[in-house]
Amino acid sequence: MRLIGREGNPDGIGAVIRLVGRGRMGPAREVHAGSGYWSQDSCAHVMHLSEQPDEIQVRWPDDPKGKEATCRVPKGAREVHLGVGGELKVVLP
């Protein structure tokens, strides 16, 4: 999955991503830019649940109210891009 953030933070650094499957919350992942000297984290986030995920929840870092955006994941989607406004683009079916 890739996040498409706002101008000034196009990769969504600081966002928290979580998959939801069958009503159960998966682990949360915070988006980092790097974690050490000369390091760089990938903009693509590999996430997995034991079952097909139903939803993606994202808490964007620059939302003053700290709201979470939730969107449905189409069945069989393998790679998705998610925008700040909740727009979901399936790249690999």
Description of the molecule:
- Strand 2 (16-21) and strand 3 form a beta hairpin.
- The protein has strands spanning 2-4, 16-21, 24-30, 55-59, 68-72, 79-83, 88-92.
- It has one domain (2-92): Sandwich (Immunoglobulin-like).
- It is mainly β.
- The strands form two sheets. Strands 3-2-4-5 form a four-stranded antiparallel beta sheet, with no helix packed on it. A three-stranded mixed beta sheet has the order 1-6-7, with no helix packed on it.
Present the secondary structure layout.
Blueprint: E1 2-4, E2 16-21, E3 24-30, E4 55-59, E5 68-72, E6 79-83, E7 88-92
Parallel strand pairs: 1-6
Antiparallel strand pairs: 2-3, 2-4, 4-5, 6-7
Q: What fraction of the residues are assigned to beta strands by DSSP?
A: 35-45%
The name of the CATH topology is Immunoglobulin-like
Rounded to the nearest angstrom, the radius of gyration is 13 Å
Shape: globular
Number of helices: 0
**CATH A-level architecture:** Sandwich
Query: Going across the major beta sheet, what is the strand order?
Result: 3-2-4-5
| Count of DSSP strands | 7
For the terminal residues, how far apart are their CA atoms? 12 Å
pLDDT averaged over residues: 87
Largest sheet data = 4 strands, antiparallel
- By CATH reckoning, the class would read Mainly Beta
Low-confidence stretches: none
* Category by helix and strand content: mainly beta
- Please bin the fraction of helical residues: under 10%
Q: How many domain modules?
A: 1
Oligomer: single chain
How are helices and strands ordered from N to C? EEEEEEE
